[in-house]
Model the fold of this input.
Amino acid sequence: MVVAPFTPISLRAAAGGGSLLFRQLFDAQTGTFTYLLGDVSSRQAVIIDSVFERHGRDLALLRELGLKLVASLNTHAHADHVTGSWLLQTGHWLCNWPVCSR
Done:
């Protein structure tokens, strides 16, 4: 099977023509929401309340949109799931704890 080279989609189009991209992501297993906010002009993004088991989905979305993750935030202690934020601190996951950089 031949796979075409990866091309990120237009961030402005993904943001509906606006300057802020907002995505609400749902994890059915834990019944929790993760939020992705991205600034169209700088291509910087934050992820809020990531779920451990969904870090692959979140990373794929960041890559697809061509976003640079600059922070991973948790709004509260999660009794219903393990946070995925710590996965982002290792070298191949984009971030350095507690603030991310590429």
User: Anything to note?
Assistant: The radius of gyration is 14 Å. Confidence is low (pLDDT under 50) at residues 95-102.
